[in-house]
Amino acid sequence: MLLPSTLLALVFALLPCPRASAADHNVHTSSDSLLWGPYRPNVYLGLRPRVPKSVLAGLMWGKLEDVEKTLRHNVNQSEGMARYGWTAYDTREGGRQIIEDVGNKINLTTEFVKYSEGQSAGNWGLRIRGIPRSGAGPDQKTTVVFYVDIELAHPVLGSAGIHIGVPLNNEGAPEAAFIKTLNVTEDRLWQAKCGYVQEATFLAALKDQTEQRTQSGPTDLVLNTFPGTGNIQLVQFVCHGGFEFDILYSSGTATRAMTSASLTTDLESTISSFQKSFVSIFKPKAPFITDRHLAFAENVFSDLLGGLGYFSGTTKVDTAKKAIYAETTGNFWLKTEDAKKHTTPETKGPYELLTHTPSRSMFPRGFLWDEGFHLLPIIEWDADLALEVIRDWLLLMDNDGWIAREQILGAEAERATPGPSVTQFPHIANPPTMFLVISKFIDMLRGTTKYYGRESVYLSQSETGKVFVAKLYPLLKRHYEWFRKSQSGDVEAHSIPTANLNEGYRCPLTSPSCI
Prior knowledge:
CATH architecture of the largest domain: Distorted Sandwich
Number of domains: 2
Structural class: alpha+beta
Largest sheet: 7 strands, antiparallel
Strand content: 15-25%
Number of strands: 17
Keywords: Endoplasmic reticulum, Glycoprotein, Glycosidase, Hydrolase, Membrane, Signal, Signal-anchor, Transmembrane, Transmembrane helix
Pathway: Glycan metabolism; N-glycan degradation
Function: Cleaves the distal alpha 1,2-linked glucose residue from the Glc(3)Man(9)GlcNAc(2) oligosaccharide precursor.
Low-confidence stretches: 1-7, 12-29, 191-195
Family: Belongs to the glycosyl hydrolase 63 family.
Radius of gyration: 25 Å
Organism: Pyrenophora tritici-repentis
Shape: globular
């Protein structure tokens, strides 16, 4: 059955507002605009709010005739993409992403904008555009699936609607559209062996339909339309050639509706604002001021911001610490590696973390020392965002001062992580690069370093900034003392002429030659 309307609508209960952490009570920040975002960097386009156990949304696509082998969803370097990434993106406003899918002979542009009106309010919009690549057939058919997962049976606090415009074909008629609602239990929802749940659910639905048919034939290519109540909504389009459609999210408490017209206007202003802000904040100098240089720099920085993810869930830690060997033990590093294979990790948490990721395809999770380097340019762009991320990281610290070097929180993050890397070991550290960012913020607070970025609550109200640093200081001190104690190295045995003979550090992750 085809849906007769050119507009689909999903209405569901929304979610609780983000938690207030111990470090920021009584301090108002601009975190409201960080509620929603493409915070699932492990997939090409995945939206969610900064709320655990709530709502996930995302996009999948592939060739209609061979969808099982060509379906795109999670970022995968083996799929032969010519390009994917954000070309202009601001965390608080949105931006544009380009995906050049050589295998499926389609180029996608995904554009996202949002605006907030306080916690749990505000709207966002997505525009999805597909253009056939050179060499595509005259009647190329692309299946496009937008999904919404509700992780809890009854999310609370408010309601919202998602309106999805059905693409039009070259004659201006609506393309084929199908919607299916499924109920999937939580244990099946996150079975590690079935791949990404959204892919598995969509492909399984097609397979189930085929098996239930009374007539034999090839596997079904489209969903049987069956809307209803469930925790997974799948909306499938069959598009001929090029296509474009909008997905409009409106909170029930928002005073301004998101429409296609406002989406167009907001997209134009968001891209223009990003480009102007980039030049005014970073002030590129000759010879790096050509259009090509600026486009390259904007793309790189946008990809950094677009790699921001929100993660929640439990983590696995080797609390028994059996993998720690004294350096006086012969071949201790080999014994450590062997002990890691026989650990029985303890589940800790749940925790929450907002963090940028080193690689959407290879490392779509938080890395402690990488994040310090990530935040050095980001704090110049948006100081409050950088501080929000730092606070999240420091709140993961244990009583000794240890912070796990990799943060693998929740089933989706664990599925994207190689098995040996999942368990974290309390004797392994990363260089404390967050101190570089805190030091830079203090210089901004003092006025010794100029700040040209987005308006900052912590810098415009200096007392608020000082209170923030004062609240973080005990955590910073604990982490610093733990690092000095746990990572100290044998300086005399491994010193080089220019080394500081008073103090040195060694990384227990590798061999004793690592100083």
